[in-house]
Amino acid sequence: MRAVRRLGVCTAVSLAVAGLSLPAAFAQSSPPTTPIPGPAEPGQPPASMPTPAPGPVVADAGTMIGIVRILPNTVPTDSILDDPDFESKLPKQSVAEAGMGRAIAQANSTAFFATERAVAEASPFGVSLLGKTPQTPVGLVQAALPDREQPTSANMQPPSSPADQLVKLNGLNGSVHARWSEKTGPCVSPIADARYSMGSASAVNALPEGLSLGGLLNGGKPAANGAGSLLRIPETAEAHSNVQLVNVPGQDRKAVQATSSLQLAGVRLFAGTPQEIQVDVVGSPRLTATATGDPSTSTVDHQVPVLRVSRGGQELGKLDAAHPNLDVPLPGLDQRVVDAGVIRLSAGELKKDVVGTEVRAAARLFDLQILRGHAVGLPTSLVQVSFGEQIARAAAPDGGVDCTTAPAPAAAAPAGTTPQAVERLALTSSGYYVVPLFWTGTALLLMGAIIIAVLPRRRA
């Protein structure tokens, strides 16, 4: 009976010690890291599974054939902040914008999602009305991982819509290719490549009579052959963007290169009218940013074509680095309807910058502005068109990208389990070992209490 009483006392003491120690044990331990969801399909790599990336390797290349802006800088910009003073300082937008032909290539070894290591996109157009940009349903996109050994190509002819009065496109084709290796990371060719081509295009095909430049532009439905449109691209145009690793002289490791190129033979302004202006592009604009991993050897190369402007077979002038602006008169217009006696052509400028091991640049082929007089009360142009907008950005690790000894890829975690990288991260805290040690000590304490209770007690 006395042994049973001693057993009960020892057990109560042990449980009391355990109860007092339990909150402290849980207070010392840290909650486990929330695991990243596993892949939805068998064999699919996890969203954030690390892949070999001798980097960081980051690059972007974008090419836009043309952008049309109706009444630019006239629509106030809204913001989520209810602050009129702040909104008044924001740049104003256009009544309507329409982009023609976009090709984008991207690479990012630091992207969280595996499918964003390499992305290629080609789309025929984009539209914005009063600062609102609806989603366009036509376009091609390819992303890696997984590695895409073959490009995706398709015809992208959009259906007829009221937007044809602003931009009408024909003969549209696109191709996208995105690659990223599970074994060698960006050491593939190409990393990302996007092409977009169109057979012909016309823009600002119909405007209200009061805005039709004295009857120079269409006031009703757009003509099938583009006659009466503000501008027309009669021949094939192509936008091409590419990201890849390249060899550079005097360096064993590879450089990261982003290239934007444009094929555009020429543009017709006021097509099919006595005032038709012909702009011929002699050469192909090309913008290349090459990051070697050394700011002193990283470069930006910009190939600038010459633009020749003529009307009725007579040359009016040319646009190049020495002659960046050209004003072209439009005689014979009905000035009682609209005062737009001059259009201005401006050669696009190059902007470039080097920050650390990253080099970036932006350029335009040329801008077109149809000027309105102050008599109409609008201190802006009726229409502004920008051709050949290009960007290129590339960043490489110090010394370049080493593809000779690419690291082995990390083992893929089974579906529905936590990736290995997350498990290692979760076990870095010593708090995860406190709870097992606590229960082990509690069990030993109880066993000791039982042994003491059952052993015979000697009298002094």
Structure description:
By secondary structure, the protein is mainly beta. It contains 4 helices and 24 strands. Strands 1, 2, 3, 4, 19, 20, 21, 22, 23 and 24 form a 10-stranded antiparallel β-sheet that branches. A hairpin with a 2-residue loop joins strand 21 (351-355) and strand 22. Helix 1 packs antiparallel against helix 4.
Give me some keywords for this one.
36% strand; 7-stranded antiparallel β-sheet; 4 helices; mainly beta; 10-stranded antiparallel β-sheet
Set down the secondary structure blueprint.
Blueprint: H1 2-28, E1 58-70, H2 84-88, E2 96-108, E3 118-129, E4 140-144, E5 152-155, E6 167-170, E7 173-178, E8 192-198, E9 200-203, E10 231-233, E11 237-246, E12 255-264, E13 266-269, E14 277-282, E15 286-291, E16 299-303, E17 306-311, E18 314-319, E19 325-329, E20 342-347, E21 351-355, E22 358-363, E23 366-370, E24 383-395, H3 420-426, H4 434-454
Antiparallel strand pairs: 1-2, 1-24, 2-3, 3-4, 5-7, 6-9, 7-8, 8-11, 9-10, 10-13, 11-12, 12-15, 13-14, 14-17, 15-16, 17-18, 19-20, 20-23, 21-22, 22-24, 23-24
Helix pairs in contact: 1-4
What's the helical proportion of residues?
A: 10-25%
Tally of separate helices:
4
User: In percent terms, what proportion of residues is strand?
Assistant: 35-45%
Principal-axes geometry comes out as elongated
Structural class: mainly beta
By DSSP, the count of extended strands is 24
- Distance from N terminus to C terminus (CA atoms, Å) equals 20 Å
- One letter per element, helices H and strands E, the order comes to HEHEEEEEEEEEEEEEEEEEEEEEEEHH
Radius of gyration: 33 Å
* Average pLDDT: 75
Summarize the biggest pleated sheet: 10 strands, antiparallel
Low-confidence stretches: 9-34, 408-437
